[in-house]
Write a structure and sequence with these properties.
Length: about 375
């Protein structure tokens, strides 16, 4: 039985290539797509020995080169594709043309974004997606599968929860070029939370505290993580705040630098920072990814002060993204998700996490005062 044709756009980027290589190792062959032909062809040639017989696409169909600037070009490139996994960030620049083309061609859309604005824009397209018979499923990687499924588990444990907090820390990990460019693109907007269902901007490191994330107590500070958007659609909880691990010295330094952030957000400065990242950053190698672990903590609270808390341990974010994205694509291609705009936990259920390898899901517990 032939496999549905699907595509990885941004296949030669750091995360896109990791996903493409794992797909080939599993005997899959997505179309490798992006703006530049040369790196696509190099990657296709490198992966060719892992593919054999009837599973392999003909060479002329293994890669597809197109930019996202011309809508007709994007639609033509997706016309025969069942689903696309979009990996070319920053998604604030690139997601809209791919989503529009998918709605026009009946192509399912998945991506690995963590950007609040992108989630908001895509999740509001539910009616259009249903009418087009298309699945729109952003955030099928580390951003935001762990937090989204954790939020769903906690909301089920405390059904009248009004507040949700999520925090994560990465031990022995580092960031890729694409991740850093996405962070730069968000400047000077560096903080956000949800208050009474509305997303509001807050200063950098607005709140900081110590939390036991399952790896010992760690300092965390508020960041604009994608769950500020997605957890609301998944749970309906109106107040959401997200944190990331950071040393106290860094937190103090960021707070001192806060008045300068509008200058950093100027277009020429952001361009210079992106150029520097492009010249100096690649991403963690295989050994570094194998060493890293990511720990997540979540807590919900109701108006009476009752709480439910849980922790989670997963591989480094990039390794997790590879597995979660490929499993998400497989389920979409198998028809397990109805047309519409979905968060991961709404598409696959809160137990999706426990079905992925090398994931340790902690129990949900109440606070001492609840007993």
């Amino acid at each position: 039985m032939s496999q549905p044709i699907w595509m990885i756009y941004g296949a030669y980027g750091y995360t896109g290539e990791l996903i493409a290589r794992e797909a080939a190792r599993r005997g899959l062959q997505p179309i490798l797509a992006g703006r530049r032909a040369e790196p696509l062809e190099r990657l296709a040639e490198a992966l060719a020995p892992q593919l054999a017989g009837e599973l392999a696409l003909p060479p002329h169909r293994a890669t597809r080169t197109f930019s996202l600037e011309d809508p007709s070009e994007v639609k033509a490139a997706l016309a025969d594709v069942a689903a696309v996994l979009h990996c070319a960030g920053p998604f604030s620049r690139t997601s809209r043309p791919v989503v529009e083309a998918c709605l026009a061609t009946g192509t399912h859309y998945l991506d690995i974004t963590g950007e609040i604005g992108v989630f908001e824009s895509i999740l509001r397209r539910d009616t259009a997606a249903r009418e087009a018979g298309v699945v729109l499923l952003p955030g099928v990687g580390f951003d935001v599968v762990p937090g989204d499924c954790t939020a769903a588990r906690l909301a089920a444990a405390l059904t009248d929860a009004t507040h949700l907090e999520l925090a994560f820390t990465v031990e022995r990990g580092s960031a890729s070029r694409g991740t850093l460019k996405t962070m730069i693109q968000a400047l000077p907007e560096v903080g956000a939370e949800r208050r009474e269902s509305k997303i509001v901007r807050i200063p950098i490191a607005h709140d900081a505290k110590q939390i036991d994330l399952g790896c010992g107590r760690r300092w965390v500070m508020t960041i604009p993580w994608g769950d500020v958007s997605t957890a609301f659609y998944t749970t309906g909880i109106p107040n959401i705040r997200t944190y990331a691990g950071a040393p106290p010295k860094m937190i103090r330094r960021l707070r001192r630098l806060a008045p300068l952030l509008p200058l950093v957000g100027a277009k020429p400065v952001k361009g210079l920072l992106e150029w520097w990242v492009g010249r100096t950053v690649t991403g963690p190698d295989e050994a570094a990814r194998a060493r890293a672990r990511t720990y997540l903590w979540g807590q919900v609270r109701n108006r009476a002060g009752e709480t439910r808390t849980t922790t989670l341990e997963i591989p480094d974010g990039y390794s997790f993204t590879i597995t979660a994205a490929l499993e998400s694509m497989a389920r979409v291609l198998n028809g397990a998700v109805e047309p519409g705009a979905w968060t991961p936990a709404r598409a696959f259920g809160a137990d999706f996490l426990s079905e992925l390898p090398d994931v340790v899901v902690g129990p949900v517990v109440g606070s001492e005062s609840d007993r």
